[in-house]
Design goal:
alpha+beta, two-stranded antiparallel sheet, 8 strands, globular
């Protein structure tokens, strides 16, 4: 019982400290969801957590975090050969859940969610700053031994704060463009098709949500 109380007190103090340095309002919501154990370093909810933590007002509900965890577990159970092949019923469920998450965060249709792929550090800097100039909430996919989404908050054209369930950076509050590029997922991947053939493709490594309504 003492451990639970101590943990809650620690998080309350953490939230108070974050407010002092001007943290995003939805950081409070994210930390409460960590306490609810629906997200955190142990989970696979990195994309949801990234968008959650770089939004000013809109936040991801614990119910959607739970739904994502369940869907991820279903996918892992079916992908027994690490083929990256996604059965149609899981793909349909993922699209439906993604639409719910995006709507909750202020993106009512998929047309409001730009995504793309960059392969050079010049392309990375250009695309990130283009999106952020427009107020887009931007995430990158990193290769950390597996795909890992990280949300970015621009400090200037070359430095960013990084937010996710965890990051590979030494200082999440000041990450250089070079550090981001060093981890950026640029690998070509093979995905198994329904009839046992394989397709090599270059996946997106940047995805963004539109600016929040004022």
């Amino acid at each position: 019982m003492f451990d639970i109380v101590a943990t809650i007190c620690h998080h309350i103090q953490w939230l108070c400290n974050q407010r002092k340095v001007g943290a995003y309002m939805t950081e409070d919501s994210y930390q409460l969801n960590v306490l609810r154990q629906v997200t955190g370093e142990w989970s696979s909810t990195c994309l949801l957590a990234s968008w959650d933590r770089i939004s000013y007002r809109a936040c991801v509900s614990p119910q959607l975090y739970q739904a994502y965890n369940i869907l991820r577990q279903r996918y892992v159970a079916e992908d027994t050969d690490n083929s990256l092949y996604v059965p149609q019923h899981l793909a349909d469920d993922w699209r439906a859940l993604s639409s719910e998450v995006q709507a909750e965060l202020g993106a009512p249709t998929p047309r409001n969610v730009p995504s793309g792929r960059v392969d050079t550090i010049e392309q990375l800097g250009g695309y990130l700053n283009q999106l952020m100039d427009g107020g887009f909430r931007t995430c990158v996919y990193l290769d950390t031994g597996g795909l890992h989404a990280v949300g970015l908050i621009r400090l200037n054209e070359s430095y960013f704060a990084a937010r996710s369930t965890w990051t590979p950076f030494e200082d999440d509050d000041c990450v250089s463009l070079e550090e981001i590029y060093a981890y950026l997922d640029c690998a070509a991947r093979q995905r198994k098709r329904p009839h046992n053939s394989r397709k090599t493709y270059k996946a997106i490594n940047i995805v963004a949500l539109p600016p929040e309504a004022i």
